[in-house]
Write a structure and sequence with these properties.
Blueprint: H1 22-34, H2 44-51, H3 68-75, H4 81-111, H5 117-120, H6 126-136, H7 139-152, E1 156-158, E2 161-163, E3 184-186, H8 194-205, H9 213-226, E4 240-242, H10 243-248, H11 265-279, H12 282-295, H13 299-302, H14 314-327, H15 332-351, H16 363-369
Length: 391
């Protein structure tokens, strides 16, 4: 990706979007500069686009992938004096943002109300902010976020029916909808409960714990076990559970969904691998790795991948497998990587790179995945903390 591909902003906040805007592309060039693959000249126009205009600082609009947290995340990889000064200011602000959102979340739990997905998810919620604080080593904010997530895993009673504490009244589009009466249970890493699971497990592996954390990880794993279909290499999980499915205790989905990072078996399995590692539960770790390996040989699942993106395409699948392979009990997952990379190349040969330049839905994410392999994680390991894949 060259400087000539710098796009004119098409919407407010484009510059500060890690997902699809200039911040995500700046991350690519910052990592390339850090690894010596290019100099800082390639980074400068994207960093300028990211920092142009006031940085979004409204707490409820600040998530890891948008606004001040996204800018701060990218600046962590810039390694310049200017970035260091800006980070000092942003970190103070993000501490305030995090505690503001935590107060609102605890007040909501005290009222016995269901959460919005954006309260706790990875993309825009407290799990994403927690991932940032874990990456930065911000002990107070991380501890308080983990304590909230522990509380989130406790059950809640709505209309005389017990529900998981993370059950949301939202639709999968992150807003209430009459098409989703009773809301849903979301299993995805991007917007669902496996994002908090991955953060709780990763933090515990790194020695960051709060009271009840092990029990919370176990509760989440038990719930995922309840909704797992099949065992071993035939295991898979749905992306969503409807209120009716929860009431009946029976899944209505006809089969596995798209094998992507954001939803589907890969992201869910990776979170459970991290949980197995955190709990020293080799049986759970093996089950997760077998499920992930199984979806890689299931043509029905692979046929549902229709793009190359990091969020929901071939690049995200490869990144998930690459990270899981680095911690796996055996080398089964690693043996799939050459074939997966060949499938990505085949897709790009037929369809070309995505039109967008961004991290999650465009070119930047694909290029970053090319920097990462199970045997070459030292230089590129930090960039994908925003995916909660690396333990």
């Amino acid at each position: 990706m060259n400087n000539g591909e710098l796009l004119t902003p098409t919407r407010p906040g484009w510059g500060q979007s890690l997902y699809s805007g200039a911040a995500g592309v700046a991350l690519l060039h910052a990592v390339r500069a850090h690894t010596g693959e290019e100099d800082l000249d390639a980074l400068r126009p994207w960093a300028a686009a990211m920092l142009k205009g006031p940085i979004q600082a409204v707490p409820e609009a600040c998530g890891l992938y948008e606004g001040a947290p996204a800018v701060a995340y990218v600046l962590n990889f810039s390694h310049t004096n200017t970035a260091a000064r800006s980070l000092a200011t942003l970190n103070r602000h993000l501490a305030d943002v995090t505690h503001h959102r935590l107060r609102r979340a605890h007040a909501r739990i005290d009222r016995g109300a269901l959460p919005a997905l954006g309260e706790y998810d990875l993309i825009s919620g407290l799990t994403g902010l927690g991932a940032y604080h874990l990456h930065r080593g911000n002990q107070t904010e991380l501890r308080d976020t983990l304590a909230y997530l522990v509380r989130l895993t406790e059950s809640i009673t709505v209309d005389a029916q017990p529900l998981p504490g993370w059950w949301t009244s939202d639709s999968p589009d992150l807003k209430p909808s009459p098409r989703w009466p009773g809301g849903h249970g979301n299993l995805g890493v991007a917007h669902g409960i496996t994002g908090p699971l991955a953060l709780l497990a990763t933090a515990q592996r790194r020695g960051h714990t709060v009271p009840g954390q092990t029990q919370a990880i176990t509760r989440l794993c038990d719930w995922l076990d309840r909704w797992r279909i099949g065992t071993g290499s035939r295991a898979w999980w749905p992306g969503l559970i409807t209120r009716d499915e929860h009431r009946r205790g029976k899944l209505q989905s006809p089969g596995p969904t798209r094998p992507s990072w954001c939803y589907g078996t890969p992201g869910i399995a990776c979170a459970q691998q991290l949980a197995g590692l955190a709990l020293s539960d080799r049986a759970r770790q093996r089950q997760a790795e077998q499920a992930l390996s199984g979806c890689l040989t299931d043509d029905r699942q692979l046929a549902q991948l229709t793009d190359a993106s990091l969020c929901h395409g071939w690049a995200g699948l490869i990144q998930a497998v690459s990270r899981a392979a680095a911690d796996a009990i055996d080398d089964e997952l690693a043996t799939h990587l050459p074939h997966l990379n060949a499938r990505l190349d085949e897709h790009l040969d037929h369809n070309g790179l995505p039109h967008g330049a961004g991290l999650m839905d465009g070119k930047a994410g694909i290029h970053l995945v090319r920097l990462t392999t199970p045997v070459n994680t030292a230089a590129s390991a930090p960039w994908d903390h925003c995916l909660l894949l690396a333990g």
